[in-house]
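Ligand-bound model needed. sodium ion.
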Amino acid sequence: VHTPRVFSGIQPSGGLTLGNYLGAMKRFVDMQDSGVETIYCMVDLHAITVWQDPANLRRATRELCAGYIASGLDPEKSILFNQSQVPEHTQMAWIFNCVARMGWMQRMTQFKDKAGKNAQNASLGLLAYPALMAADILVYHATQVPVGEDQKQHLELTRDIAIKFNNDFGVDFFPVTEPVIEGTATKVMSLRDGSKKMSKSDPSDMSRINMTDDADTIAKKIRKAKTDPEPLPSEVKGLEERPEARNLVNIYAALSEKSVDQVMRDVGGRTFSEFKPMLAELAVEKMSPISDEMSRLMQDTAEIDRILANGSERARAIASPILQKTYDIAGM
Ligand code: ADP
Ligand code: NA
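Prediction:
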């Protein structure tokens, strides 16, 4: 039986979105405050599976740390660190590269999406990425991983790797980690297209709310969000074929910490010209303090670097003995 321990990470690839906040960060804070040990990483080694400008990467790593803290993570309560500062991640990843099968990696839909048509020209790291992700999690024997829906397949692979390692060596060493994909914002969609997830890599800035957007920008993006002409129904059922409406309702529910049913009772019957200003006001109320706090924290990058250095020491103290034991099991 493994002690409950939470791990998750976000890529410092620039431009954190409302999707990252609601689907990941806000949930990280809930888990921190639930009393279990929580470990949250800036996964810079994942970011470089596609090209990153070095100066941007350095800035984005600090900005992500600022985003974590501004969202409510407390470096005393949670371990906050940068992946590349803890070499046990890549050491464990090599073991898992040798446990995972080529076919498993080639099936990953995110690889296919990110590699595009010319997969031969993708980095080898982009293919191996999910084995590194398994290492991120299992090098801490993490039992729970809060993530958005898009990470479900990678979490299944992490479980497959843990199970295969345990079977191959006849041990019960790695926990079979549970994904924690819960709440009303497990997949926040684009504001311009209800069939695409909100993402920092979308070419249209109007498609997403960035965690650094100011109040006017947030309000404008919500005002211009794509919708349909019907008023809101009073029951969730009525949103089934209306992905854009459903998305705005989900965002409202997640920001206000209400269930979707409750939101439908509150706003059912309203038109979008009534509902959008309500949503904009709520989004500004919840997101502006975070963006203000992020810019304040970014004025003292030395302090951020100190927090990350301290976090990586604490992370290594957990990861190092687990890696040593893994080597031992494998005969090294
Ligand atoms: P991105 O997908 O924005 O490039 P990451 O891959 O680093 O960012 O994802 C960080 C976390 O944010 C993951 O747990 C992911 O599932 C979550 N996430 C990203 N986009 C969304 C979204 N649109 N809705 C909900 N969660 C999301
Ligand atoms: Na993602």
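The chain has two domains: 5-180+300-329, 205-295.
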